[in-house]
């Protein structure tokens, strides 16, 4: 399965990510966060939901780990591109959307 968000391609079967012509190398955890956002593209995903599904823990553990990984993903996916695909919704969560 391949999920497209604008010019970002997340290939679930091959665990690869491309933005335009550029291959993007992600750590295993970065990939899992991006995959979850891609599977729920255009929807707001809460920090608690990401903690539960990516880290398999409740909101109390690693309170800022989601924010840190979103920052890592933005550096690899959005930096250098005019159009930003990872959006923050204050006090709600994040969304991967064109």
Going by helix content, strand content and strand pairing, the class is alpha+beta
- The whole-number mean of residue pLDDT values reads 94
Largest beta-sheet details: 4 strands, antiparallel
SSE run: EEEEHHHEE
- How large is the count of helical segments? 3
Name of the CATH class: Mainly Alpha
CATH architecture: Orthogonal Bundle
Number of domains: 1
How many beta-strand elements? 6
Give the name of the CATH superfamily: Winged helix-like DNA-binding domain superfamily/Winged helix DNA-binding domain
Beta-strand percent range: 15-25%
Find the CATH topology: Arc Repressor Mutant, subunit A
- Give the spatial strand order of the biggest sheet: 1-2-3-4
Distance between the terminal alpha carbons, to the nearest Å? 19 Å
Domain OmpR/PhoB-type: 1-98
InterPro entries: OmpR/PhoB-type_DNA-bd, Sig_transdc_resp-reg_C-effctor, WalR-like, WH-like_DNA-bd_sf
Pfam family, one: Trans_reg_C
GO cellular component, one term: protein-DNA complex
């Amino acid at each position: 399965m391949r999920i497209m968000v604008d010019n970002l391609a997340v290939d679930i079967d091959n665990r690869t990510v491309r933005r335009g012509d550029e291959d993007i190398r992600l750590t295993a955890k970065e990939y899992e966060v991006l995959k979850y956002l891609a599977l729920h593209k255009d929807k707001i995903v809460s920090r608690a939901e990401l903690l539960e599904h990516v880290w398999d823990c409740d909101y109390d553990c690693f309170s800022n780990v989601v924010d840190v990984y979103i920052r890592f993903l933005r550096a690899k996916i959005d930096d250098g591109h005019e159009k930003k695909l990872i959006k923050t919704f204050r006090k709600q969560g994040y969304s991967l959307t064109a």
